[in-house]
Design goal:
The chain has 14 helices and 15 strands. The chain is an alpha/beta fold and 444 residues long. A 7-stranded mixed sheet has the order 4-10-9-8-7-5-6, sandwiched between helices. A 4-stranded mixed sheet has the order 1-2-3-13. It has a 4-stranded antiparallel sheet with strand order 11-12-15-14, covered by helices on one side. Helix 9 links the parallel strand 7 (215-220) and strand 8.
């Protein structure tokens, strides 16, 4: 069993073995692939990561939401190992196997709505988003794709076009995909609008700029991930869904980061009383193995011609075995309840920090998906780039924190569901000191 005493640092950070590995990396890995901390990981267990120098870190990011049920989960390891011994690949579109079917059954059961559904399995979130767009375009016979400000959907040509930020994801990679339109979203801290007001603004933009009759899909993150864990105002998403349904537009929920129990429900859409037409999942779906999915209304999925969906490695047998174990672990160990427990602990602790630190402009999130946005106490404007300073300070104390936000001023928390309250409290105490240092630097 992993310890609950927090981080343990026995060398400088980074340690000598990590430094040596980083030197090797720079010789063979392109500069374009970034790193937050040049610490090289050897193994993981529960909420902890151990580097090659023997240092133990508290992982408050779960590999950006991938290892939600914990590093080194034995059920996932055993399921994947068993499948490795049996068969590693056939290509489901030629010689099928039960694991793919079982994952699709779980997705039909757990995604919002009781309508008839079907699923296609692919390799990554970006590929799943592209697949959802293909389905929506085929079903509607329209071309337009509407996305929301501050969104992040991936790194392929289509998805980088859909992202809010061209830098760094798309700089110099043009020409970009056509027929993608960026509409204003709901950002309560910045716009001060009610959900219905923000929805009216989004709808007006689409109708005046694109024309609803030209839109195949409206793609949204129920809680925006890279954009800074932006939670839309109450009523925003239901109003958009009502308009989309009346306009013949397919509503696609990008639940790549917010799904699979992250918010205390199977999928974050449930919190907003909406039933998307298509739901995209990835990241935590297979506990660390590459797997993503599109689950949608059967009539939409079946509008695509035979052979129009699939791919060589999509729904790989080993990844499917791991995904089945993830679904079963969340159910049998009641990890949705643990996600809600973590959410309460984090929210309470972050709200206490906000009382002491005026640079925290907002605490927001649902379940084990929480964030703070750092703003100037006098002007309310973002403290651009401040999240990196906080993250670096925490890492030096053994706490891995992730940054986010279009202005790089958001700290996001994605602890895995096995993280004890005591470890979360320790992480918050280290964050407390880092915030004090930031405020001192800001004053000077």
């Amino acid at each position: 069993m992993y310890p609950d005493s927090g981080p343990s640092l026995i060398t400088t950070i980074p340690g000598p073995k990590s430094v040596a590995l980083h030197e090797r990396r720079t010789e063979v890995v392109p500069y374009a692939i970034p790193w937050s901390l040049p610490v090289y990981i050897d193994r993981g267990e529960g909420p902890y990561l151990f580097d090659v120098d023997g240092n133990r870190f508290v992982d408050m990011g779960s590999g950006i939401g991938v290892t939600s049920i914990g590093h080194g989960n034995l059920a996932v390891i055993e399921a994947a190992t068993t499948q490795l011994r049996n068969v590693t690949h056939t290509l489901f579109g030629i010689l099928p196997y039960e694991g793919y079917v079982r994952v699709a059954e779980f997705l039909s059961e757990k995604t919002p709505g009781d309508h008839k559904k079907s699923s296609v399995l692919v390799n990554s979130g970006s590929e799943a988003i592209e697949t959802a767009v293909k389905v929506a375009r085929k079903y509607t016979q329209r071309r337009g794709v509407v996305v929301l400000d501050h969104a992040f959907h991936g790194r392929t040509n289509l998805t980088l076009t859909m992202n809010h930020k061209i830098i760094p994801y798309g700089l110099g990679f043009g020409p970009y995909a056509p027929d993608v339109f960026h509409a204003p979203n709901s950002y309560p801290l910045w716009d001060g609008l009610s959900g219905r007001e923000a929805a009216a603004r989004t709808i007006q933009f689409v109708e005046e700029t694109v024309g609803a009759e030209n839109v195949a899909a409206l793609i949204f993150e129920p809680i925006q991930g890279e954009g800074g864990f932006i939670v839309p105002a109450d009523g925003y998403l239901p109003a958009l869904q009502a308009w989309a349904r009346n306009s013949g537009i397919v509503m696609v929920a990008d639940e790549i980061q917010s799904g699979m129990g992250r918010t205390g429900c199977w999928f974050a859409s449930e919190h907003f009383d909406i039933v998307p037409d298509l739901v995209v999942a990835a990241k935590a779906l297979a506990g660390g193995l590459p797997l993503a999915s599109v689950t949608g209304r059967a009539e939409m999925m079946d509008s695509v011609q035979r052979g129009g969906l699939g791919g060589t490695f999509g729904g790989n047998p080993v990844a499917c075995a791991a995904a089945i174990a993830v679904f079963e672990e969340i159910e049998t160990r009641e990890l949705l309840r643990e996600s809600r427990r973590i959410g309460r602990t984090l929210e309470d602790g972050l709200c206490e920090l906000r009382k002491r630190h005026p640079v925290i402009g907002e605490v927001r999130g649902i379940g084990a998906m929480q964030a703070i946005e750092l703003t100037d106490p006098e002007t309310g404007t973002p403290i651009v780039g401040s999240a990196k300073e906080i993250s670096a300070a925490a890492a030096s104390q053994g706490i891995i924190l992730l940054t986010a936000g279009s202005e790089e001023n958001v700290i996001r928390f994605l602890p895995n569901f096995t993280t004890p309250d005591s470890v979360i409290d320790l992480a918050l105490s280290i964050l407390d000191r880092a915030l004090s240092d930031l405020e001192n630097d800001t004053r000077h």
